Amino acid sequence: MIAGMTQNKTKIIGLTGGIGTGKSTVSKIIQEKGFPVIDADLIAREVVNIGEPAYIETVKSFGETILRDDGSIDRKKLGSIVFNDTNLRHRLNSILHPQINKKMKEETFKYSLLYRVVFLDIPLLIEELENLNSSGLLFDEIWLVYADETTQLKRIIERDKTDLADAIRRINAQKSIEEKLKYADVVIYNTGSIKELIDNVNKALEEV
């Protein structure tokens, strides 16, 4: 990884996966190799910090019942409100996504001045690809972390101490991992050991 290269166009890589595929682990491996990774989930939390424009709009739209005692937004409570209601979810997304995309663009520009490759870790990249592109976030490559659905279910149940029905419901809330494969330029398979995963990531990084 070479920092400070600004004479060549920076390669922008979108990193995504499905729930339980191990995307967060891959993101960590990439960072440990010295590549910058912009975390969309982290930015999503930052834009609803108390006093931020998205915080104000979200509270105005959903009411103060979504707040904790300290005034911060209870993301779990808000998530449960919008999960099964398409209209409410759309309303929330219309508040959050412009702010998230704006911050991601700012971070991408900042890192592009210093690095020849920048990764954006976006869980719902495929689902939101059109909106991301419309906001000016364009990707040279999309990397997909892949695990079959049986492996996904097993990991979700073990990690989150939940049952099979809940795990299936959460997987079905996203595009299937098989559907996401159609959009991927690079597929990182994560169905074996951590050593195999590290080897797969390193192999992909050698090609960037």
UniProtKB/TrEMBL annotation:
EC numbers for this chain: 2.7.1.24
Protein source organism: Proteiniborus ethanoligenes
Biological function: Catalyzes the phosphorylation of the 3'-hydroxyl group of dephosphocoenzyme A to form coenzyme A.
Annotated localization: Cytoplasm
Membrane-crossing segments per the record: none
Keyword terms: ATP-binding, Coenzyme A biosynthesis, Cytoplasm, Kinase, Nucleotide-binding, Transferase
A Gene Ontology molecular function term of the record: ATP binding
Xref: Pfam families: CoaE
Biological process terms in GO annotation: coenzyme A biosynthetic process
Pathway participation: Cofactor biosynthesis; coenzyme A biosynthesis; CoA from (R)-pantothenate: step 5/5
Catalytic activity: 3'-dephospho-CoA + ATP = ADP + CoA + H(+)
Cross-referenced CDD domains: DPCK
GO cellular component: cytoplasm
Protein name in UniProt: Dephospho-CoA kinase
Residue positions binding ATP: 20-25
Primary localization: cytoplasm
InterPro entries per record: Depp_CoAkinase (IPR001977), P-loop_NTPase (IPR027417)
Principal EC category: transferase
Family as reported in the entry's similarity comment: Belongs to the CoaE family.
UniProt key word tRNA processing: no
